[in-house]
Amino acid sequence: MSTVRRRPHFSTVMLIVGLLFLYLPMAVLVVYSFNSSRLVTVWAGFSTQWYGALFQDQQILSAVWTSLKIAFFAASMAVCLGTVAAFVMTRFGHFRGKTALSSMVTAPLVMPEVITGLSLLLLFVQMAQLTGWPADRGEGTIWIAHTTFCSAYVAVVVAARLRELDSSIEEAAMDLGSPPLKTFFFVTLPIIAPALAAGWLLAFTLSLDDLVIASFVSGPGANTLPMVVFSSVRMGVSPKINALATLIILTVSLATFVAWYMMRRNERRQIIQRQEDAA
Length: 279
Prior knowledge:
The protein has about 280 residues and is mostly helical. The chain has 11 helices and no strands.
């Protein structure tokens, strides 16, 4: 009895090709981060020396701390500004200039980063000439610039959640005597909290990854991690960069796994709770 070999479906083949295209370069990078040779394309044996050299490089460590600090504060401020903009776009009635405001809020989404960085640079230069601030461009100007374009992404995410929110819940709370401010903090805010968290994480990632805008608005005393990596790569890829990229991949993978595990556990709890309620 002859067995018929089933050919893989076209969708399965394309899925495998797509995954290889996305993750094979990362796998190669991780492997070569353990290369003992200084040449990143020549394998000379297994070694972890570049991880030790990475933690002794004060320039990279300082850039990592600067990027994390700027990304944290930029994402936090972007959530505040983006949430306010989202409420104006979704909850306020029609007023003169609402369309123009919505267009201006979402403009950074489609604006080239070169144009955004150049315009912010000119703004800071003019402000320094007129008011004397900022005297020197540095972490503060990068924070303002990142907050500017990250707020647009947060506004879009939060506005989408607000449009799906049933306003009758808020109306019921106010009918029962809850003031508007208390209704926002105790009713609306918990409901849109997942959107706020998603917007914060998106803004944090965008700020941490930005190179073009930070290059325009930074000064000699402030170098973010993408700027340091780009400068070192222009002089030749160092094995320390491979080690740094491997640590970033490991951190992101662990964070993704933890988020997936928590979501899966919450889903199981909800299923068990529903079964107990049904019984």
